């Protein structure tokens, strides 16, 4: 089909979204996309959801494949979450606020609790990546820390440390345990 | 007496009159899944200026005095008080992440006598005292020492004109809790929205003071102030009110710290230097 003339093409905005989840989380772009649609459908209703038209363009785990640099090149559409993933979510220009609201209501993806945060909004995918998604966060590092009276396995990302306990995971930072030395 | 009814004509005596930014009110370990430091780091990243640690009294996160932090000590952060059990040093976290950490408590009991005892005890210790809404709604709004009546509509809780009028009279803030609006779907969310609307209508009619929060116990449950404003816009809570409600925590904390300070005698009266009259 022939392209629409420029003035009839929909105007988009691209939201740079950080998705934080427990370190053992594993979900992919499709799951996050479903969660976005589900949240938008529930919060905004079918008409509002159609207007906002949230679609997840990129979904990347910090230590996932590093292809896709250069914007239009290889499109990284796969990758699984865990710790902090990033995504680019496309939304209609007039609906950015409602898109934000819908994303705030994404509290679970495939049963995994997540925290979403819009880092910024851009008019193009490339600008969105360059301004808000670079450089990627530090990679996950496994270590052992003293917490709650014992040495426990933990995964650290920068200053954040997720410590494995018997009854799940505890969020902590480097302030919460004695240093390695 | 810290807390207490607002004296409208009195200016803030701290000399720091600019409006505080948004504050996040959260539950830390052992009640939640994250330490105070982690919640503070997350809150800063999301654009909050302060963190109110409001664990329930029966799962308390204990603020330690500043001298007790054990920084650079051999045994690390305080061998006696474990961060895993909720111990934290507000000043230390505040310095590390450039965020205001407000030690608070949420009193949860069904017994008014016990609640009154807890209120007297915590009022002198903590900068903010909240009461867990529900059966104690009426009691809480009638005591000016209470700062915040938390989630008054949750569970079997309900408010009416009597409760809101009393809250306005005694300066007790009513909380708009957005957590159920964010996390629930279907019928439960409909209920949450209905409750929110009822509370909003009565509160705005009587011009009662209020706070806004995502009453969460997880670092994954926090949402940015801007996202909350967007949600507020969708569900009929004006974005301006959301901002005001998030900042109200900071105003309360500032007021109460002044009152807990040594120079404070009564609203408008303090010992010390003469104040310039302008």
From TrEMBL, chain A:
This is Ribonuclease P protein component 2. Its EC number is 3.1.26.5. Its main location: cytoplasm. Keywords: Cytoplasm, Endonuclease, Hydrolase, Nuclease, tRNA processing. GO terms for molecular function: ribonuclease P activity. GO terms for biological process: tRNA 5'-leader removal. Residues 61-80 are annotated as: Disordered. It catalyses: Endonucleolytic cleavage of RNA, removing 5'-extranucleotides from tRNA precursor. The keyword tRNA processing applies. Consists of a catalytic RNA component and at least 4-5 protein subunits. Belongs to the eukaryotic/archaeal RNase P protein component 2 family. The keyword Zinc-finger does not apply. Pfam families: RNase_P_Rpp14 (PF01900). It comes from the Archaea. It is found in: Cytoplasm. Part of ribonuclease P, a protein complex that generates mature tRNA molecules by cleaving their 5'-ends. InterPro entries: Pop5/Rpp14/Rnp2-like, Rnp2-like_sf. One of its GO terms (cellular component) is cytoplasm. It is an enzyme of class 3 (hydrolase).
């Amino acid at each position: 089909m022939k392209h629409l003339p420029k003035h009839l093409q929909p105007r988009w905005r691209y939201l740079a979204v950080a998705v934080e989840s427990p370190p053992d989380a594993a979900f992919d772009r499709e799951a996050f996309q479903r969660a976005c649609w589900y949240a938008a459908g529930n919060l905004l209703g079918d008409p509002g959801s159609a207007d906002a038209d949230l679609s997840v363009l990129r979904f990347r785990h910090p230590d996932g494949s590093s292809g896709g640099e250069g914007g239009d090149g290889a499109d990284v559409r796969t990758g699984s979450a865990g710790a902090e993933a990033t995504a680019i979510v496309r939304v209609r220009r007039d609906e950015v606020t409602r898109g934000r609201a819908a994303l705030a209501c994404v509290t679970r993806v495939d049963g995994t609790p997540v925290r979403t945060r819009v880092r910024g909004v851009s008019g193009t995918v490339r600008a969105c990546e360059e301004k808000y998604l670079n450089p990627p966060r530090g990679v996950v590092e496994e270590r052992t820390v003293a917490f709650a009276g014992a040495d426990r396995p933990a995964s650290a990302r920068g200053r954040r440390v997720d410590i494995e306990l018997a009854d799940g995971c505890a969020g902590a930072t480097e302030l919460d345990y004695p240093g390695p030395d | 007496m810290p807390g207490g009814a607002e004296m409208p004509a009195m200016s803030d005596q701290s000399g720091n009159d600019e409006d505080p930014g948004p504050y996040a009110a959260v539950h830390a370990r052992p009640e939640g899944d994250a330490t105070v430091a982690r919640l503070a780091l997350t809150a800063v990243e999301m654009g909050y200026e302060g963190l109110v640690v409001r664990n329930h009294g029966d799962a308390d996160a204990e603020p330690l005095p500043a001298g007790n932090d054990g920084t650079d000590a051999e045994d690390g952060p305080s061998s006696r008080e474990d961060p895993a059990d909720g111990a934290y040093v507000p000043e230390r976290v505040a310095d590390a992440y450039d965020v205001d950490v407000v030690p608070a408590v949420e009193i949860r009991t069904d017994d008014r006598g016990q609640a009154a005892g807890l209120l007297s005890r915590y009022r002198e210790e903590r900068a903010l005292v909240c009461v867990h809404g529900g059966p104690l709604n009426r009691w809480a709004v009638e005591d000016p020492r209470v700062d915040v009546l938390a989630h008054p509509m949750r569970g079997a809780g309900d408010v009416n004109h009597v409760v809101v009028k009393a809250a306005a009279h005694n300066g007790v803030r009513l909380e708009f809790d957005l957590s159920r609006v964010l996390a629930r779907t279907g019928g439960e969310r409909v209920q949450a929205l209905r409750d929110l609307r009822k509370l909003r209508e009565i509160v705005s009619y009587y011009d009662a003071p209020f706070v806004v929060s995502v009453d969460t116990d997880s670092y994954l449950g926090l949402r940015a102030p801007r996202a909350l404003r967007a949600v507020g816009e969708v569900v009929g809570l004006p974005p301006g009110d959301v901002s005001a409600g998030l900042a109200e925590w900071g105003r309360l904390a500032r007021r109460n710290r002044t009152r807990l300070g040594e120079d404070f005698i009564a609203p408008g009266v303090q010992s010390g230097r003469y104040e310039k009259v302008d």
